[in-house]
Amino acid sequence: MVQLLSELEAAYQRKRATGTPFEASGSKERDGTAIWRRWEFSCFSQCGDDGLLYRIFGILGWGHRRSVEIGYFPHEANSVNLLVNANFTGLLLDGNTDPLIARSWYSSVPNYLKILHENHRLPKDSQTFKEPTEAELRSTCAPYCLKACYNVNCYQASEMTREPLMVRSLVKLTNIQQLIDSNFASLKISVRGARALDYFSIDIDGMDYYLLDSLLSTGYAPRVVATEYAAHMGKDLAVTRPYSPTFSAAATSFQYGASLMAFLKLMRRHEYRFVGCVEWNAYFIRNDELQRPEHSRAFPEPTTATCFYQDAASRTTEVVRRRKACQVDWVEVEVPKGSKPREWSVLKDLLLENLGDERGMREG
Q: pLDDT for 5-14, tens place per residue?
């Protein structure tokens, strides 16, 4: 996979050097699929995000190779492939991820083995890593031949050139700038301003809309942005939960996040183009990155309908999740200047109308 990615990146560089336009072929919209689906692949991402990001940066250029991801799990984040295989300098922020697990995943192999041995010396009920065992680590090929190896270098032809910055902290409006600025300052880097930050991703199942708006309103201008959206809230209304610095919601409640339309309107206001979705993640590129005609043609703005599956099973799941979500208040955002947001009672009626009878529907 490492060799394939290196060849892919080199191919993009050769193509860009010739000045030959990157043409987008015809759309294949079908049950939530669209043009970007053919670019998807996964090395570490949960879905096909790795492929779309390689396509985007391969065409636009890799820039300074800097990323920030808020809300991650060490081996399943959207920026992992950029960190491991594209030599990005990255900051990972999360309020729940165990720092020891994060360190073990990104450490060099000697440090990874040291972490394991130290952890195995603790009482069994205090150990973070139950596998691989000390007996397995005595194998002459360890850790590369182990089935259970929680380190990126176990699966790579060559080791990472640098470890990412990793911080365990709840990210709020009051600390988001300090967390980003102080960590990059430790590397004598500023990620404020045009083209200073290449990729920003947020997925915290909560106040994502407000944090993203705050970031883009205070001097940050990432070239590419990804954000998880609440697909079960439909494609038409721009809604999110009311802001709370202590917000918390169970994952199975679906009472968190913001709708796709909320993010589309937010990002248009900040001069970004919507370029597609990978399952529940929406992707945006800054307009000034698309000034060259060949870049603009390579990333046409799709319709929101292409981000929603229309098959019966997906529709059933959406209905059940939306009914759960509508048990609490949501607010309308990005309303036209001079207009007032509609009351929750009005929004709720619009969200629940024509959903049909939920009897017999399976849980989402």
A: 677 777 666 6
